[in-house]
Specification:
Low-confidence stretches: 429-433
CATH superfamily of the largest domain: Tetratricopeptide repeat domain
CATH architecture of the largest domain: Alpha Horseshoe
Largest sheet: 9 strands, mixed
Structural class: alpha/beta
Number of strands: 9
CATH class of the largest domain: Mainly Alpha
Order of helices and strands: EHEHEHEEHEEHEHEHHHHHHHHHHHHHH
CATH topology of the largest domain: Serine Threonine Protein Phosphatase 5, Tetratricopeptide repeat
Helix content: 55-70%
Number of domains: 3
Radius of gyration: 25 Å
Strand content: 5-15%
Length: about 450
Amino acid sequence: MGTISLCMIVRDEQELIGQCLSSVSRLVDEIVIVDTGSIDRTIEIAKSFGARVYQRPWDNDFAAARNLSLEMASKDWILVLDADEALDLKTCQQIKDFLKQKKECYLLTQRHYTDDFKTAGFVACKGEFSDFEKKYLGYFETGVTRLFPNHPQIRFTFPIHELVEPSIYALNKYNILDKKTLIHHYGHAPEQKKLKDEFKRNLYRKLGEEKIIANPNAAKPYFELGVLLLESSKSTDIEDAVGYLSKAAELNGQSPETLMNLGYALMQLGKYEESGIVLTEAVQKDPSFVDAWINLSALFKKVKNFTDAERCLLKAYYFDHEKNKPHILINLGLLQIESGKLNEAKESLSKAVEIIPNSFDALKGLAVLYYKQADYEKAWQLMQKAATLGVKPIETHYYLACVLRGLGKASEALRELQDAKQAAKDEFDKGCIDSLLIQAIDREYELLKKSCGV
């Protein structure tokens, strides 16, 4: 069996690098780390695992940093990981088995953990890897070539979104095999994403612009930068995203994914007619494109066309063959409540809770359903469970107040509304306020004050 060099680039990764290195400590034969300027305990932790650490000043080039780690590797095989990734025992055994076979390159599957069930490709966690799932609601997956022979001509290219595949294809010696081998990735988890988002956007934007200058006639750099800017909450960034995605669509008009993202960006800017045209084109090009149907539904909901919004979600649910996207069911259930289809809504929301029992939105949606049916006890039980999740405090207090009012507990409901108003005050500076919800809270508060004689 061949030997393995673990190759990494890091910077200020003290929170996660220990987990990463521990997960592969019995798999790899050497650890080669290129540090680009850590000022925390990253290097100290790495060396405690026997890593050889090389310092390299950061020059906005991910490929160059990764290639230095490859140049310093001395074993037969290269395994590339980031500090916010880890391997489970099953994956480690699979990799050992690969090393007994003919030398090839391997596409590994990154499982990105997230609590955002609206993320494209979201799949609910099922406890298959409980030590790695860490109570996250779910994940989405992408493929990346991370295991390959140590060959001097296999190197990363592109300073941003660096890839090793072009050099493998150019070498024309190895195949890239997809064995569905997992890498557990935490970079999209809430606490890690919040820390890195602003830095990543600023850095990746600069590098993305440079990549476009170097490849002005390629659609991919425009697409990547457009999608990156869609993560921003700034309208100027969304406007720029529209420009980049429009150019990507111009260069590759056959890509439903490009059209879907462009349609979403236009919707974010309130350009609903243009968004509808683009999203419709996306589903025409790929009628089974689940996320495009979801975005088209969101557009119809914004313009108060609930019939077509429900129709699009039913399409999305039909094409979601694994039936593991709870946000389809949640949104469908909420639309069915608005349309007065309470039995259908109950079925949709109950299925969502089965898939993802700790989803605040699913629990709240089902609570709203029971509230509308005047079953306040069931609504109360569901909202209490939702409250234990510790998320969305404004909504939590507001809906608890509504249910308490239904139960005839006006004084307790008033206290919940007071807590809701305080939570809203705390969130005001963050720009996280739903104005309609605040108006509803204020109305309920004034009514309850009168009924309580306050």
